[in-house]
Every structure is written in C-alpha cells, then in structure tokens.
Design goal:
Blueprint lengths: L20 E2 L5 E4 L4 E6 L2 E2 L7 E2 L2 H5 L3
Antiparallel strand pairs: 1-2, 2-3, 3-4, 3-5
C-alpha cells in the first residue's frame, strides 16, 4: 500500500505541529524543524515521537 500524498496537507509533526515532507525514498515523513523522521509502514505514517529517528542537519538538507 502506497502513501497518499494528499495526507501531507492535513498531517503535522506531533512535536511542533509543523509541516511534514515526504523524503525522496517515500518511506519517511520528515519534520525539518525538529529534525525528526517518522517511518511509513504499509502506507500508514507512524507519528509517535519515541519511534522517530533523529536526523543530522545534512540529512535534513537532503530532503529539500
């Protein structure tokens, strides 16, 4: 099951409530402000802070 890009309009980072962007591989949602990446499992984003991956500044810049 693929992630529906229309969800990006309504989903927000659970930490800062900011905008999320889809990474190039289309398997994670990224919050650039908090430098967190949330996995997408079977087309469903796992928006749980404790399960998010902390990203480096270089990794965040690569999502632009």
């Amino acid at each position: 099951m693929a992630f529906d890009n229309k969800l990006l309009e309504v989903l927000a980072c659970p930490v800062c409530k900011g905008k999320l962007v889809l990474n190039d591989e289309k398997d994670k949602l990224v919050c650039r402000f908090d430098r967190l990446a949330y996995d997408i499992k079977d087309g469903i984003p796992v928006l749980i802070e404790s399960k998010a991956t902390v990203m480096t500044l270089d990794e965040v810049d690569a999502t632009r």
